[in-house]
Amino acid sequence: MAKKEIDVLDFPDDFLWGVATAAYQIEGAFDTDGKGASIWDTYTNEKSFKNGNANEAIDFYNNFEEDIKRIKELNLDSFRFSLSWSRIFPKGTGEINMAGVAFYHKVIDTCLDQGITPWVTLYHWDLPQELEDKGGWTNRSILDWFSFYVDFCTKEYGSKVSNWMVMNEPMSFIGLGYFTGQHAPGKKGLKKFLPAAHHATLCQAIGGRIVRENVEGAYIGTTFSCSHVTPKNYFWSNIKAAKRVDALLNRFFIEPLLGMGYPYKEFLGLKKIKKYFKSGDEKLMQFDFDFIGLQYYFRIVAKYNLLPPILFAKEVSALERNVKTNSMGMEIYHKGLYKMIKKFSKYEGINAIYITEAGVCLDDELIDGKVKDPKRIKYMKKTFSKILKAIRKGKNVKGVFLWTLVDNFEWAEGYKPRFGLIYNDFKTQKRTLKKSAFWLQSFLKRKEKIYPDS
Ligand code: GAL
């Protein structure tokens, strides 16, 4: 029997369909109207950085109205975007930049006018440079700086926005930014990583509490990167290595939040983080979020290795394994999404799950005014069917945000990886809907036809 095509009507009526973005990757206008520098502005404008910068990005700053209309045109109902801290507070704290504040009011108002629900991420990696100069995430004062910023934003926008996400993927910005140095601010080593990680753990809960306090009826979450991790083979050393990688990538930031503490059992060396604890921290890092966001892109196969210390594990790359990958060489492994939903659903204290990012980068090309990306269509179908499977098995998955609306600046990789449903010509900023965007548009359209009032 032929396999049934995925159908939007198989999903619960209130299942949410959105797209996700991040300020630094789309806005551009990096020093316009009083915006201060963020660590990503500094990092990508250094001579040693070879993959361009997002000084202009996709110029969402000047194109937001058209782009939000495009979200509507695709029949999506929700837009996840982040606020740039240094656009609002150029120096991180202190003086407010009213033009920056006004910009996000306009973005939110445009969403509301279009009938698109705004989902705001408070922190998606672009720390104000002035704060990094004082140690950034490694400095415990970040607890105050972050509280000040979150307090302001939630009071300012709280009457219009109900859906808030405190952070985007702490393991990515702390791991890559303060351990391996592959992301801004380019810091390296355990002595940077451990305090930065602990402060981010505290801030995610502190942020949650501030939103709860300031926004009546708020729906509050925070997001985590996750990767399905398997051992290279069933040698004991590799199985243990995979467990450590899993603990680091999937458990490190969620377990303290749920009152379980850091996953010390998997690697004893992690106890060194206690050096950065103050009395009361165990309690301070807990918060009862309404939902969590899972962001899934790839699977990791791990094996034992002497380096790095504490982790003693290494990835067996997708290339070595000769498996299907996206254009960044990451394995496309759909089953992993289902497994991640299952894994996180097991935690007591997780009330609801949204897939706050899922997407694929491909070598899309504009030919005769068209972009054919059948692989992205297949990717979406498979992603949706894994989510549906999870829902049918009783998991509380309530929505998906595709990464992303328009091709944009992919951090350390620059403009090469194209993740968008919409193609962007970075010279002219002309947008072209890819074939996948048309597919999504008609996939979602069916819902409207059947439920005209929804
Ligand atoms: C995520 C990140 C996004 C985007 C995406 C695609 O980890 O949150 O900002 O870059 O990866 O690789």
How would you characterize this protein structure?
A hairpin with an 8-residue loop joins strand 6 (291-304) and strand 7. Strands 1-2-3-4-5-6-8-9 form an 8-stranded parallel β-barrel, surrounded by 6 helices. A two-stranded antiparallel sheet has the order 10-11. It is globular. The longest helix is centred in the middle third of the chain and has 25 residues, at 190-214. It has helices at residues 23-26, 39-44, 60-73, 85-88, 98-114, 129-132, 142-157, 170-178, 190-214, 236-251, 254-257, 281-284, 318-321, 335-345, 374-392, 435-450; strands spanning 16-20, 78-82, 117-123, 163-167, 219-231, 291-304, 313-316, 353-358, 397-402, 422-425, 430-433. It contains 16 helices and 11 strands. With 454 residues, it is of the alpha/beta class. It has a single domain (8-232, 282-299, 335-450), classed as Glycosidases (TIM Barrel, Alpha-Beta Barrel).
Give the overall shape. globular
Query: Which architecture does the CATH hierarchy give at level 2?
Result: Alpha-Beta Barrel
- Counting DSSP E segments of at least 2 residues, the number of strands comes to 11
**SSE string:** EHHHEHHEHHEHHEHHHEEHHEHEEEH
N-end to C-end Cα span? 33 Å
The average pLDDT score comes to: 97
Strand content: 15-25%
Bound ligands, each once = beta-D-galactopyranose
- Give start-end ranges of low-pLDDT stretches: none
The CATH homologous superfamily name equals Glycosidases
Give the C-level CATH assignment.
Alpha Beta
Write down the CATH topology.
Answer: TIM Barrel
How does the major sheet shape up? 8 strands, parallel, barrel
> Rg to the nearest angstrom?
21 Å
The figure for the number of domains is 1
Order of the strands making up the biggest sheet: 1-2-3-4-5-6-8-9
**Fraction of helical residues:** 25-40%
What structural class do you assign from the helix and strand content? Answer: alpha/beta
Helix count, per DSSP? 16
